[in-house]
Amino acid sequence: MSTKPILPGQGPIEPVALKDALEERYLAYALSTIMGRALPDVRDGLKPVHRRIIYAMRELKLDPAGGFLKCAKIVGQVMGDYHPHGNQAIYDALARLAQDFAVRYPLVDGQGNFGNVDGDNPAAERYTEARMTEVASALLEGIDEECVDFRPNYDGRVEEPVVLPAAFPNLLANGSSGIAVGMATNIPPHNADELCAALLHLIKHPNATIDKLVDLVPGPDFPTGGIIVEPREQILEAYRTGRGGFRLRARWTKEETGRGGYQIVVTEVPYQVQKAKLVERIAELLSEKKLPLLGDVRDESAEEIRLVLEPKTRAVDPVVLMESLFRVTELELRFGLNMNVLSAGQIPNVLSLKDVLWQWLEHRIDVLVKRTAHRLKKIAHRLEVLDGYLIAFLNIEEVIRIVRFEDEPKAALIAKFKLTDVQAEAILNLRLKSLSRLEEVEIRAEHDKLAGEQRHLQSLMASDDLQWETISDQVKATRERFAKKTDLGRRRTTFAAAPEIDIDLDSAFIEKEPVTIILSEKGWIRAMKGHPDDLSKLEFKQGDALKRAVRASTTDKLIVFATNGKFFTLEASQMPGGRGHGEPVRLMVDLEENHDFVEIFVHDPERKLLVASTGGYGFVVAETELIAATRKGKQVLNITGPEEARVCVPVDGDHVATMGDNRKMLVFPLVELNEMTRGKGVILQRIKDGALSDVRVFKKSEGLTWLDSAGRTFTLPWTELKEWVGERAQAGRMAPKGFPRSNKFGPGF
Question: Is domain 604-749 classified as CATH 2.120.10.90?
Fold first, then answer.
């Protein structure tokens, strides 16, 4: 059948702006991702897929005390009735709930291969079997008692729960992680015993502070153990704001191997770290010679984790060795905290520890009220039936006669004994054999028992205090069930302070060797082994020559000063070898073509420097302020107009000598200079129609020193310097006799 195209003006065509259509559809997708896939509900701590798996297992009657069932059957039930997605995605979620190394309190009791801490995948769903654990049963407790809302499934055939009753604080106990559109969540697992203690405290003291709650819940409790080395102040801030992180380290011990030797044995690796990949990474770093303190790594794990690390020599301190490994491997990681959850199943928001605990308690109150109302309804119905039975027992002959001879026995019974419809129906549905046991004493006993329960439940519905007392008893029961004295409930992750060591760990990765850094006039750099005295035989490219030669070691940082006032940081260990001409420094840093390099020196964090421009402006700066984290360098001396940065010398003295290219020299006290971190500085020397040539900081007691044209050191004592002494910003006087024609004092470093 052919169809004609709908032309403009014909048919149900509605023009829509592309921007509006995209916004509407993307927003719908984003909301679907946030609410239906990525973020857990604060009440039961579950995402829809996990909730559907647990509910489907209940429908299949896979109770903790019952038998196991093939996971393929469970996945099929979940996919067919509740979760219209791929079976592999459902099975992956199911398998994870059974992994005791991934989930602190597993919700699924698995039988078969469900993967391991090395990162191996679970066996196929047709080979594995599963049933619920006690934790899953606690999450479902009372679900048949109308305590949670249900909604139609994806095709409307059956109904599924919107949320589970959750008699177990699952969100914080098991944690959660997920990435949505524009937001994410990452919640570490915690200890159930500690969470219950905090909940009981919060019930008694609704205005409890975060400090007190963190006393009760000191931090996460990961299923794989480990040691948290995050300071308490940071943990407090993380739980107060709902955002932060925890530094988690592997647990290790030192084993003596005889003759003064030892080896490190790692028994617990950080959460979510695959042990096999960790060993592989350490071995790679070892082969790349990036772990000079480590000799060998072996995995001797069986049922328990046993990762053996051998030091390079027995002289290596075990603490320093481990600190160096924590720096570059996943033996230490930072587990982020981002408590972004759905409140009331609808509102994504980042909650504090107190908010999460309180919203779970509010959910439990809501469940309690609904369960109580359901039970009261059941009791009222049963009491009504028992009243009818009692009337039937007392008038059994008349009841029998009416049933035998009346055309409408139900109406006759209602009219004769003033029964309700429910009572009449119950009497008519009695079996004959029940009449012999229908004794008045039994009826009255059950009636009295139910009436007493009814009065108690009515009191409970009317009293907030009784409701909180009931919730408190339930939390106490949960705490007893998962107490720290049980194998499942014991705390696995401990707390410790990271040891403070004096050694520079950055340099621990590099073998310390003496090198001489050669910088040429045209900006080529190389590192020669050792500290040779004679550099006259150095070869350079045609037209190039030596600019600076700096004695250093491979563990040093190098600072390069450029004419644009920027400082760049290089690692001595990364410099090209000294056999060739080296490499251009411009390949290592981002420097404009119209600028050049002025000075290179070894970083000394204890030192201060004087920087100055050709315009005569300068200031003192601490050398710690010069370290640049990127190739772009760090702007320190601000340059204006045609001026350039020219001078960078160490501050080692109490007086400053400046020299202009007009051969005028000025000496003034160092105290007249400001110390800054960045800026143009103040005028050092006024130079008419010229530029600042050089600066030197010296001690008054030692006099001013320079190198003369023959390369000899010449010192002018203070007594002969007085005619050049003045105040900062003066013009100065002609240089002393014998001062070099270059107008330079010589190398400052």
Answer: yes
Say whether 188 sits in a helix, a strand or coil. Answer: coil
The second-level CATH assignment, the architecture, of 357-481 is: Orthogonal Bundle (1.10)
Q: What is the pLDDT of residues 215-248, one digit of tens each?
A: 999 999 999 999 999 999 999 999 999 999 999 9
Cα distance between residue 343 and residue 349, in whole Å: 7
Q: Which of 638, 634, 545, 647 is nearest to 590 (CA)?
A: 634
Helices vs strands, H then E, count in the chain: 19, 35
Query: How many CA atoms, within 13 angstroms, populate the side-chain half-sphere of residue 423?
Result: 22
Helix (H) or strand (E) holding 415: helix 409-417
Architecture of the domain whose range is 46-165: Alpha-Beta Complex (3.90)
Closest CA to 363 of 453, 207, 475: 475
Same fold, 251-330 and 604-749: no
Euclidean distance between CA atoms 275 and 521, whole angstroms = 51
Phi, psi of 544 (to 5 degrees): -110, 165
CATH 3.30.1360.40 is held by the domain 251-330: yes
Give the residues across from 254 on adjacent strands: 264
Dist CA 667 CA 721 (whole Å): 8
- Between CA 488 and CA 282 the distance in angstroms is 32
Residue 563 has φ and ψ, to the nearest 5°, of -70, -10
566-571 and 634-635 beta bridge pairing: antiparallel
Question: Are 78 and 59 within 8 A, CB to CB?
Answer: no
Alpha-carbon distance of 135 to 107, in angstroms, equals: 6
CA within 13 Å, CB half, 262: 15
> Any idea where the domains of the chain sit in the sequence?
46-165, 251-330, 357-481, 604-749
Q: Is the pLDDT of residue 388 over 80?
A: yes
DSSP type of residue 626: G
C-alpha pair distances (Å), 448 with each of 436, 445, 678: 21, 5, 87
Whole-structure pTM value: 0.69
Orientation of helix 48-59 relative to helix 71-81, angle to 10°: 110
Q: Give the whole-angstrom CA distance, residue 279 versus residue 289.
A: 15
Q: How far apart are CA 245 and CA 317, in angstroms?
A: 29
Q: Would you please indicate which residues are annotated as catalytic (active-site) residues?
A: 127
DSSP conformation letters of 102-143: T-SS-SEEEES----TT-PPPPPTTT-EEEE-HHHHHHHTTT
Cα–Cα distance measured from residue 111 to residue 583, given in angstroms and rounded to the nearest whole number: 61
- Which two tokens mark 544? 């190039």
What is the rounded CA–CA span in Å between residue 434 and residue 432? 5
Which tokens belong to 315? Answer: 């002289």
- pLDDT higher than threshold 90 for residue 507: no
Give dist(CA 732, CA 28) in Å, integer.
76
d(CA 199, CA 590): 56
Element (H, E) at 151: strand 150-152
- The pLDDT tens digits of the residues spanning 673-684 come to 989 999 999 999
- How crowded is residue 23: how many other Cβ atoms within 10 Å of its Cβ? 11
3-state helix, strand, coil in the chain (%, to 5): 35, 25, 40
- Angstrom CA distances, 620 to 41, 287, 608, 613, 632, stand at 57, 45, 7, 13, 22
* SS3 labels along 458-504: HHHHHCHHHHHHHHHHHHHHHHHHCCCCCCCCCCCCEECCCCCCCCC
What are the phi and psi torsion angles at 55 (to 5°)?
-65, -40
What separation, in Å, do the N-terminal and C-terminal C-alpha atoms of the chain show? 91
> What is the tens place of the pLDDT at every residue in 540-583?
888 888 888 888 988 889 999 999 999 999 988 888 887 778 88
From residue 303, how far is each of 117, 118, 178, 688 by CA, in Å?
Answer: 11, 12, 30, 82
